[in-house]
UniProtKB/TrEMBL annotation, chain A:
<dbReference type="InterPro" id="IPR017896">
    <property type="entry name" value="4Fe4S_Fe-S-bd"/>
</dbReference>
<dbReference type="Pfam" id="PF12838">
    <property type="entry name" value="Fer4_7"/>
</dbReference>
<keyword id="KW-0004">4Fe-4S</keyword>
<feature type="domain" description="4Fe-4S ferredoxin-type">
    <location>
        <begin position="10"/>
        <end position="42"/>
    </location>
</feature>
<keyword id="KW-0408">Iron</keyword>
<protein>
    <submittedName>
        <fullName>Ferredoxin family protein</fullName>
    </submittedName>
</protein>
<dbReference type="GO" id="GO:0051539">
    <property type="term" value="F:4 iron, 4 sulfur cluster binding"/>
</dbReference>
<keyword id="KW-0411">Iron-sulfur</keyword>
<feature type="domain" description="4Fe-4S ferredoxin-type">
    <location>
        <begin position="44"/>
        <end position="73"/>
    </location>
</feature>
<dbReference type="GO" id="GO:0005737">
    <property type="term" value="C:cytoplasm"/>
</dbReference>
<keyword id="KW-0479">Metal-binding</keyword>
<dbReference type="InterPro" id="IPR050157">
    <property type="entry name" value="PSI_iron-sulfur_center"/>
</dbReference>
<dbReference type="InterPro" id="IPR017900">
    <property type="entry name" value="4Fe4S_Fe_S_CS"/>
</dbReference>
<dbReference type="GO" id="GO:0046872">
    <property type="term" value="F:metal ion binding"/>
</dbReference>
Amino acid sequence: MPTATQRTSVPVIVDEDKCIADKGCTVCIDVCPLDVLWINPATGKAHMRYDECWYCMPCEADCPTDAVKVEIPYLLR
Amino acid sequence: MNVSNIPVIDTDVLVIGGGTAGPMAAVTAKEQDPSLKVMLLEKANVKRSGAISMGMDGLNNAIVPGHSTPEQYVKEITIANDGIVHQPALMAYAQRSFPMIEKLDSWGVHFQKDETGDYDMKKVHHLGTYVLPMPEGHNVKKILYRRLRRNRVQIENRYQATRLLKDADGRIAGMVGVNTRTAEPIIIRAKAVIMATGAAGRIGLPTSGYLFGTYENPANNGDGHAMAYHVGADLANLECFQINPLLKDYNGPACAYVTGPLGGFTANSQGERFIECDYWSGQMMLEFFKELEGGNGPVFLKLDHLAEETIQEIETVLHTNERPSRGRFHDGRETNYRQNMVEMHISEVGFCSGHSASGVWVDETGATTVPGLFGAGDMASVAHAYMLGAFVYGQICGESAAAFAKERDLPALDEAFIAAELERIQAPLKVADGIPPSQMEYKVRRLVNDYLQPPKVTKKMEIGLQRILAVRDDLHLLQATDPHELLRALEVHSIIDCAEMAARASLYRTESRWGLYHYRVDCPEQNDADWFCHTRLYKDENGNMAHGKRPVAPYIVELGEEKDAYQKLRVQKAANA
């Protein structure tokens, strides 16, 4: 069965200037209950890889550099 | 030892699920006997997992001396559940409720106190006073984590349990699972197992259509319910669905528990109160549903009549604690409590004893029907348990499991069963050109909404069951392209199991009960002659889903003249109005 990929606007936004994941920080990745934040291999920074968000906010609350912002998913806004 | 070339990890007590009940269970088992090996397995990370990942804004069922008694509480919860409760389990909770509050208080969890230093209790229930605010409750998970470290509980994060193991005598023997980031399997042999896997909150689909916009933390997808079923444990009263009053499009409680004591209330479009009491019960939800669908609908949370300082207090609690993205949601729609009533709606359906009464059957010791397997929190059957019930039954299970583990040797493992399970959990990675987990999940959850959501209709549920079984037939097509998708694929297995259980359990009880939770249009009456009992759902010796009845244990608290109080929740208009 062939498949297609579908683009989606994701609710968790990481400010790459502030994010220190490339220095070894994994706080937001560690605390996400749904494991949707991963390191972007192209930049070394954290990003939302899967659009499976509960907008619960530990990623934003626990980020040591205030780099993470959680938006309400577009469907609910 | 090795099974299928995988090293087996041995432990005395295994706790599956590190949200609320799980950490308390693990710490308690260690407190019972520090020499016991206690392992806590968590699908996410115990620092921020489960229903209270961001904390909690209050206790909804605190029995505090001077404000209420265990007997009053047991009576009220029995009445709110149309009589179908296991009173000894409620009483065990009620008696331990206050000591647990004091224990949490000594650990640094802050509860609201009045000027005399007494706990600042609020009345939200229909009859008694049981709500204790905790406006600084955002640090609960941190405090639990500290206790886990201090008691040297072995923590394994990012592992999904997939099946429980039994020995030849039918006693629990451990589990099989998989790492959610590497897809590497894990086999754990345990003398006793405590399940604290949370609600089955990903059965129904939120009306927004966003798969992860569920009331429950979506990690709580029903893996525990499915595992308990497959290992042969009884599940109870699954037809008593969880359905909660929420904000429209936002999955947080509108929170009459917080706003009610401050003057807020649930209103219809005329701004009028239509229910006597905002405490979540099936009867309350039925009145809510009628108003929602009626000419005075939809339903709103009304705060616009309150004083500025009261509204600021409400905003502080509701926008910083349990669901802190709520403020952001309101800002996006320019909703201001000062000027606007806030539109409400009902949640998708689920299994959650925390708010309703269904789950894996446990008695007053936390024991399931499988020896050595215990259950606590939203997945176990103790009605209306909420967060404090999860803590208390975590503690009870920790004690029970420690005692069970000390009396036995490490069990023998069923290697053939384990080999078959390892096949099953790796299968989606081997499928090419298959169906993505999200697509199959959407389909089955959409069917649950279309066919199983109350008001329940027999023929619709029969069609729904057939359609759900047709999705089950597609499971061999389910494809995962990476370990994360494998996690979702295995969750789909559990979601299908839970959807089938929801359909069959609802068809079995041919009456209406618990207000909206099991409102069956073609059997509209409550029928105590045939159905004053718990229903059982279990796997029979042929591997089929079977049903039975379990008598309600003799009451230890009589209901008296208040026994019908929850049948009278609609605000009565005066005869001359």
